[in-house]
Design a protein that fits this description.
The protein is mainly α. The chain has one domain (24-126). Helix content is 69%, strand content 0%. The protein is built from six helices and no strands. It has helices at residues 24-33, 38-45, 50-63, 67-76, 79-103, 105-126. Helix 3 (50-63) runs antiparallel to helix 5 (79-103), helix 4 (67-76) crosses helix 5 (79-103) and helix 5 (79-103) packs across helix 6. The radius of gyration is 19 Å and the shape is flat. The N and C termini lie far apart (52 Å).
């Protein structure tokens, strides 16, 4: 059974970044990877930062299994469906982890610098070496 894509009803906030738009290659790749996900397409077309939340939610949905699903699959001999879903979850996790560094390397680098500075500030404030 396919996992449903999150919809705009699942995302409780709307965040727009009018100062910059998504790179065309980024939009194209996501639309090709998820051709039927209309809410994602709408967010991409409108530079809506909910794109990241949609992708996180979908990754999380793929990764969650209920005990009842596992028992039912075992009983019905459809365990291969769960294994396939687990493979999809691993692939999505890898894809998601690679997405920002590939398309937004300067943001990733800036984030690393902010984290490093925050660590240094905390160490100095608390007197840690």
């Amino acid at each position: 059974m396919p996992i449903p894509y999150p919809t705009s009803m699942d995302v409780m906030y709307v965040a727009f970044d009018f100062n910059k738009s998504f790179p065309a290659d980024f939009v194209k790749e996501l639309k090709e990877k998820f051709p039927e996900w209309t809410d994602l397409h709408f967010s991409l077309d409108n530079n809506n930062q909910n794109v990241w939340e949609f992708l996180r939610m979908y990754r999380d949905r793929l990764s969650k299994f209920k005990a009842k699903q596992i028992l039912s699959a075992t009983k019905n001999g459809s365990f291969e469906e769960l294994v396939d879903r687990a493979r999809q979850a691993v692939e999505m996790q890898k894809y998601f982890a690679d997405l920002r560094p590939r398309f937004f390397p300067e943001e990733v680098e800036a984030e690393k610098k902010r984290h490093k500075q925050a660590d240094e500030d905390a160490k100095a404030y608390y007197g840690f070496e």
